[in-house]
């Protein structure tokens, strides 16, 4: 036995992506919203950026592209829809044995109850392409975007939503259950809740705390239904949701800072897990941010090293989350962890730190089964558009050329070493 091996032999090493952010030519509530709001997003870029940075406490300039309306339209994105084989060849060449991707519900069910067979066949090809390359697929069923008809009937606030979602999930699982074991119901459910219904910066841009409470319940009900359906059709499936977990700390020892911190921690990190208790086969971690809460709600950080989006480099948070979730006695996957870093200045250090803290947690008994770096390629970062560069692989958006970043090679070296294949 290799005494030095810390990662389990079948550990999943890979990357993550989402349909709307890479495929191109998606038609859903977001693509409509982008077209309507691109000019406004460009015009208000500086103000929105200042608000973001005020939260993060850093002081970095916004790049030129942020003032260009075309930055905010996902358009043909990275053209992954047509180039998925090329992208998976790259993932394979980088030593990945897993990939988490998303299905765009709007492609599958563009009209209520009418399923598009061509798109169902498309995602079958995507899954086969992964399997043919020895890459385990992890499928995310919903990553924020909705078919237009779902959005028009009230979207994630509607009491009809769980039934609509359940019908789509049933069809998908019937189709792909023979080649998929790992399922994510919802990606970061708190983000559309908080950004869509509290901050009002994501569609449908409603600032209504009462509605946001309702959305938690609706999405949790939809998750529970999906869990039941997936297990009915595929008893060995592994089902969970993928939360954005923030490492929150009080700014000072003041009781007010502590109360504010506990309040934020509850709504950001705990509530959805509580609502879905008993219907998760694994727990997921999507980790990007470490924030200090100063009452009433402002957030400060004094970090020196920050990403292009002002996020502090703080991979110790992975360890924090792995240890915090250990008590649930469920397998854990890190389904997203990444950095906006156009110059690839910090990504290597970021990945090495991730590995360091994963090892530490594994040694201390965390049942960690996989790490999916966000993201395989650069992609469309929602209301920030194309300028944030999260890819292990750089995209030239004019030519769609893929260029492997240095950090991706180092990630590969790490994977091979940890697998004992170097
Ligand atoms: O790009 C997003 C992704 O869609 C959800 N998690 C965070 C990523 C980086 O901001």
From TrEMBL:
One of its GO terms (molecular function) is beta-glucosidase activity. The active site is at 336 (nucleophile). InterPro entries: GH, Glyco_hydro_1, Glyco_hydro_1_AS. GO terms for biological process: carbohydrate metabolic process. Keywords: Glycosidase, Hydrolase. Belongs to the glycosyl hydrolase 1 family. This is Glycoside hydrolase family 1 protein. The lineage of its organism: Bacteria.
């Amino acid at each position: 036995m290799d005494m030095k091996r810390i990662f389990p032999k079948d550990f999943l090493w890979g990357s993550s992506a989402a349909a709307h952010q890479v495929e191109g030519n998606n038609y859903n509530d977001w693509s409509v919203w982008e077209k309507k709001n691109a000019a406004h997003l460009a015009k208000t870029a500086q103000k929105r950026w200042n608000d973001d940075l005020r939260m993060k406490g850093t002081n970095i300039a916004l790049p030129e592209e942020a003032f260009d309306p075309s930055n905010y339209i996902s358009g043909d994105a990275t053209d992954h829809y047509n180039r998925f084989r090329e992208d998976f060849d790259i993932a394979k060449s980088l030593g990945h044995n897993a990939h988490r991707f998303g299905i765009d519900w709007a492609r599958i069910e563009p009209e209520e109850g009418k399923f598009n067979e061509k798109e169902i066949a498309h995602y079958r090809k995507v899954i086969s392409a992964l399997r043919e390359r020895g890459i385990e697929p992890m499928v995310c069923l919903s990553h924020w975007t909705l078919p237009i008809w779902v959005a028009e009937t009230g979207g994630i606030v509607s009491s009809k939503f769980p039934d609509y979602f359940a019908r789509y999930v049933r069809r998908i699982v019937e189709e792909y259950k023979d080649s998929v074991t790992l399922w994510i119901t919802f990606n970061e459910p708190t983000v559309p809740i908080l950004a869509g219904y509290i901050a009002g910066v994501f569609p449908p841009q409603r600032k209504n705390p009462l509605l946001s409470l309702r959305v938690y319940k609706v999405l949790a009900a939809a998750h529970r239904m999906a869990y039941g359906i997936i297990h009915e059709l595929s008893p060995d499936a592994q089902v969970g949701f993928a939360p954005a977990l923030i490492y929150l700390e009080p700014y000072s020892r003041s009781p007010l800072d502590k109360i504010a911190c506990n309040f934020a921690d509850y709504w950001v990190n705990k509530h959805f897990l509580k609502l879905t208790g008993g219907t998760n086969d694994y727990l997921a971690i999507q980790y990007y941010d470490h924030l200090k809460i100063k009452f009433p709600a402002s957030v400060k950080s004094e970090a020196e090293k920050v990403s292009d989006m002002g996020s502090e480099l703080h991979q110790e948070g992975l360890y924090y989350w792995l240890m915090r979730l250990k008590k649930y006695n469920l397998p854990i996957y890190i389904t997203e962890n990444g950095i906006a870093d156009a110059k690839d200045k910090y990504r290597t250090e970021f990945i090495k730190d991730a590995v360091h803290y994963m090892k530490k947690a594994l040694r201390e008994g965390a049942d960690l089964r996989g790490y999916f770096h966000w993201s395989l390629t650069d992609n469309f970062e929602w209301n920030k558009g194309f300028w944030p560069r999260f890819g292990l692989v750089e995209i030239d958006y004019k030519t769609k050329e893929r260029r492997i970043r240095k950090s991706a090679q180092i990630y590969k070296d790490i994977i091979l070493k940890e697998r004992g294949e170097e």
